[in-house]
Specification:
Tetramer of two alpha and two beta chains. The chain is mostly helical. The protein is 36% helix and 8% strand. Among the domains are: 57 residues; 63 residues, Arc Repressor Mutant, subunit A (Orthogonal Bundle); 29 residues, no CATH class.
Length: 290
């Protein structure tokens, strides 16, 4: 069969079949998920574009993610943080400092009010056995125990007068448990009741002594004038002046020292050094080759 005959046969077969052409199906676009909340004007409709809805959905997803990522620091199984710490010894330290600043005994209720929590049995045992606290069982009070039980001017004078040595009292020890120590020391020094030594750098009080006024002796002006007229010779001339006065100086004047011993400049002849014989037990067995 020729090519033309095949082409005619194909066209005849297609023409004999039915018409399969159909109308195009129209798929509507999806409805918008959100609309603008802005009020619409009469006669005009407001619709949300697909780009605006996608941006709003992305913003909502980001906000939800941030909210989920936020952590809640509240631990309901632990007591609330009152600023005093969560450990017993940390809370005890705060209580000791509070009693030190108060300078008066405080009851258990006052300590619980300061700590903002009740004191358990462990805390009570630690406070009662603390070396810096004093517990009064009769009054159920706690007080700070300073190095010296001194908190007034009269107590300071009484303590200094009872001292048996001239060692003095450290101001640093006085300030332990006594906030007004420095002011009281300044007042007692101004009234000449105590003697105070101070630092050269900033003039802070370091040590205090009692000023025993019974030892103050009134000296006549005539004696003072005689004492001031005495001329003290320079330090190098003091030994000589003492010797002329018939007194023995406590130090020796370098100018009066004579070198009594002269150095021997003669050379000393050195003797020949002989070797030490250590094999004397072999004297009869060895042969002398000299």
């Amino acid at each position: 069969m020729s090519l033309n005959a095949q082409l005619k046969s194909f066209k005849a077969g297609v023409t004999g079949q039915g018409n399969f052409a159909q109308a195009r199906r129209h798929v509507p676009s999806p409805a918008p998920t959100s609309q603008s909340s802005a009020p619409s004007t009469p006669g005009a409709s407001t619709t949300t574009t697909p780009s605006a809805s996608a941006a709003a959905a992305a913003a909502a997803a980001a906000a939800a993610k941030r909210k989920k990522a936020a952590k809640n620091n509240v631990v309901y199984s632990q007591p609330a943080d009152t600023g005093m710490g969560q450990y017993i010894m940390t809370q005890v330290l705060h209580l000791v400092e509070h009693l030190k600043a108060a300078e008066v005994p405080l009851t258990r209720a006052q300590l619980e009010e300061f700590l903002q929590k009740p004191l358990d049995n462990t805390m009570i045992q630690v406070l009662r056995s603390h070396d810096k606290l004093v517990f009064d069982a009769a009054a159920d009070t706690y007080a700070f125990k300073p190095l010296h039980n001194i908190r007034s001017a009269q107590q300071l004078l009484t303590h200094l007068q009872a001292g048996t040595t001239a060692q003095g009292l450290s101001v640093k020890e006085l300030k332990d448990g006594w906030a007004g120590a420095l002011q009281t020391i300044d007042e007692l020094e101004a009234s000449k009741d105590i003697l105070v030594t101070r630092t050269k750098k900033d003039g802070q009080a370091r040590m205090v002594w009692i000023n025993d006024k019974s030892l103050n002796v009134q000296i006549d002006d005539e004696f003072k004038n005689i004492w001031e007229k005495i001329v003290i010779p320079p330090a190098p001339e003091l030994p000589g002046e003492l010797e002329r006065a018939g007194l023995k100086p406590t130090s020796v004047d370098p100018a009066t020292i004579k070198n009594a011993m002269q150095k021997d400049t003669s050379k000393k002849t050195k003797k020949p050094r002989r070797g030490r014989i250590t094999n004397t037990h072999l004297a009869g067995m060895l042969r002398d080759y000299n």
